[in-house]
Design a protein that fits this description.
The chain is an all-alpha fold and about 150 residues long. It is built from 7 helices and no strands.
């Protein structure tokens, strides 16, 4: 598994724990069991968590703007945090290609998502966010699966 991919998964677990326990991020990270996670993945996970935490109100508003026929309160914690992580990367991590961010969010939602088809919901929202904030047209989806894995 690539460094950022593993980091995103750990970030999801940390943010999920934060939502469930309502503990502060620093405490959760300090006590989090990273197992045999590579150091670069840990660093990326922590930076993503801190970025999400620092920008959470803005990220949540952006996600809410792009919901269609869905209420924010109905999105379960796992899916909500997958969206937050990917939206954070779309808005603040311009060095990562759009297709890679969305691909990773879809892959993580297939693995951890609240429902078997959460990935469809997440893909749709992130596609709309990418169109607006990265000026990406639907054309990016044509090359979605052909993106370079070196960015993962």
């Amino acid at each position: 598994m690539k460094i950022r991919e593993k980091g995103r998964e750990k970030a999801l677990q940390i943010l999920y724990e934060k939502d469930i326990t309502m503990k502060d991020l620093e405490t959760i990270i300090k006590n989090f069991d990273f197992d045999d996670t590579p150091e670069d993945s840990i660093i990326y996970a922590i930076s993503v968590c801190e970025g999400v935490e620092d920008n959470i109100d803005n990220l949540d508003e952006i996600i809410k703007e792009h919901l269609i026929d869905w209420e924010w309160d109905r999105i379960l914690y796992v899916d909500r945090n997958i969206l937050r992580i990917a939206t954070y990367e779309l808005i603040y991590k311009k060095d990562i290609p759009t297709a890679v961010i969305i691909d990773q969010a879809v892959r993580i939602s297939k693995k951890f998502g609240s429902f078997s088809d959460s990935y469809k919901f997440i893909n749709g929202i992130l596609g709309r966010i990418a169109e607006k904030y990265r000026n990406e047209k639907k054309a990016w989806s044509k090359n979605f699966w052909n993106c370079s894995r070196s960015w993962l």
